[in-house]
Q: What sequence folds into this?
């Protein structure tokens, strides 16, 4: 069965712009989480969605937002981009987000800010 | 709050060697611990998930152990191959709930 799909794979933006990233979870999975990966900070949790509701949120500014649709697909939006937002953004899905379920990751979207 | 640490940050070994990667965590009331592999420019591939009631899990040449009392997990790779070269990350839920808290990873190079 198809894995977690993230689009686009690569994005180049300039400071001040905004960007939307997309994540399609594994079929049947209803929990979607987003992570930011940078060389300095490693993987950091952004937020988790379940049944179209944000269930958990990490320590990121309000410029970072997301949503989930009724088919469990999720989007992440970053407004007023800063150079420090350059990172690999990873999406993970699981059946319900319960702690005993493994998280399955996509290949990520590489965002570069010029 | 859970904190996860992986030492060393990088490791280089000759092909065929057995090796151990280390992961330590601060909250012993851990629900489970997951090991991932990440190839350059790629996402994470789940390798093993150890529940708190288990002491170890095995998949092929990989064996992961979990010692809650000492706050440690190890990933044992037998008969390493150049194809094992990647970054290995461990992660645990934060205080019994998602999200996952990740270590910074160990970058493994297996030299032919």
A:
């Amino acid at each position: 069965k198809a894995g977690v799909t993230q689009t686009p794979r690569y994005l180049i933006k300039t400071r001040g712009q905004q960007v939307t990233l997309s994540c399609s979870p594994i079929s049947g999975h209803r929990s979607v989480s987003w992570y930011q990966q940078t060389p300095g900070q490693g993987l950091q949790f952004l937020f988790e969605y379940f049944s179209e509701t944000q269930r958990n949120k990490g320590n990121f500014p309000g410029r970072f937002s997301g949503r989930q649709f009724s088919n469990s697909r999720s989007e992440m939006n970053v407004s007023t981009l800063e150079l420090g937002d350059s990172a690999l953004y990873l999406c993970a899905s699981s059946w319900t987000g319960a702690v005993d379920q493994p998280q399955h990751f996509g290949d990520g979207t590489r965002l570069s800010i010029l | 709050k859970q904190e996860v640490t992986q030492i060393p940050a990088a490791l280089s070994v000759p092909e065929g060697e057995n090796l151990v990667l280390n992961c330590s965590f601060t909250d012993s009331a851990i629900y489970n611990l997951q090991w991932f592999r990440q190839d350059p420019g790629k996402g994470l591939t789940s390798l093993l998930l150890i529940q708190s009631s288990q002491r170890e899990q095995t998949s092929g040449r990989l064996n992961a152990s979990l010692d809650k009392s000492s706050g440690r997990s190890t990933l044992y790779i037998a008969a390493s191959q150049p194809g094992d070269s990647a970054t290995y990350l461990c992660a645990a839920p934060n205080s019994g709930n998602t999200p996952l808290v990740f270590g910074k990873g160990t970058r493994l190079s297996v030299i032919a």
The CA atoms of residues 85 and 102 of chain B lie 19 Å apart. DSSP finds no helices and eleven strands in chain B.
